[in-house]
Amino acid sequence: MDIDMPDHAAFEARLDQTVKALEDRVARQRAALDKLRASSVSVPTTPSTDPKKRLQQLHVIKAAYDRLTAAELSLPARDSALPSLLATRNIQQTVSGTKAAIEADQEKLRLTQQDLQREQANLNDAKALTTALERRIERLRAQQREKDQRDPSQAARDLLREKQKTKQRYDQEAKNLRNALNDFVNHHLASMLAAEDLGGPVVGDLIDLDDDLLAAGFTHQGKPRARAKVKESLQEANRQRRIDEFCERADQGGEGGSPSEKDAAAQEVQQLIDDLFGALLGEAGSGVYVELDGDSAAARFLVRAKVAQFHPKDARRLRLVDFGRELDD
User: Fold this and answer.
1) pLDDT tens, 78-95?
2) Per-residue pLDDT averaged across 54-68, rounded?
3) How big, in percent rounded to 5, are the helix, strand and coil portions of the chain?
4) Which residues is 291 bridged to in the sheet?
5) What is the pLDDT of residue 269?
6) What angle do CA 319, 239, 318 make, to 5 degrees?
7) Rama region for 317: left / alpha / beta (φ>0; ψ in -120 to 50; rest)
8) Rounded to whole angstroms, how far apart are CA atoms 268 and 272?
9) CA-CA distance, 246 to 249, in Å (whole number)?
């Protein structure tokens, strides 16, 4: 079976013929334009204000239209490829415009779908919130109806029971927090406080501290001394004084033996925290401030940690920072 193949030579010949015809036509139009420019006929560009000249202009324009109307239209020949080329160009422009419109519509569709998904998520959240609020309102109404139906004495007993449970829960949480604080003081903070009191580094600068290092003491520059010079440490008198002070304030009936520097520091900071809490709660009877016996690493640490605050005019008085209200002393 034979398949008709396009005759490329004939098509190129038609194209060449069409191009030549267009060039000839352009040449004729240019010649006519040059002839018109060379003639003495003046083509009016603006209407004249003189009626006679205005009438002449109209006659000239009418004569030009009459000649153009009577002239035979200059159309391409039947075998010209120009109509096909023009149609092909129009089709290409239409296809390009359609593709661009499709891409723009696809981008708009994508953005619209994103907006729809976002609005759908907001709607779902609003529905969930509405459902939760409706359930909450229904529970409150049920509780209110139950309260209205209960005996006042029974309601008072239930309220007292709830308050007692809340107090027990808070007491247990406070106990857990205090146990955690004591554990932190005994295992981490006490040795660092003792080191600072003995002339060593500030709390936090040196983490790994043991009893031997504390017993050895520190130099004037705050560096640990050699452990072999423990008995000859220059801080021995100061260390013994601090131990004696805590021994005097220790509860009767405790374990025997002298406490170490670490134990003394732990007792000091724990006692100071208890005194500060008692003063804040009004149990001390002397206001919210606690009178300090002297400068100590425990007091300085609480101030650096923004847990306590010195009195603005007296550095021997200390108080807890009340996070619930501003300090107005």
Assistant:
1) 667 777 778 888 999 999
2) 80
3) 65, 5, 30
4) 317
5) 80
6) 5
7) beta
8) 6
9) 5
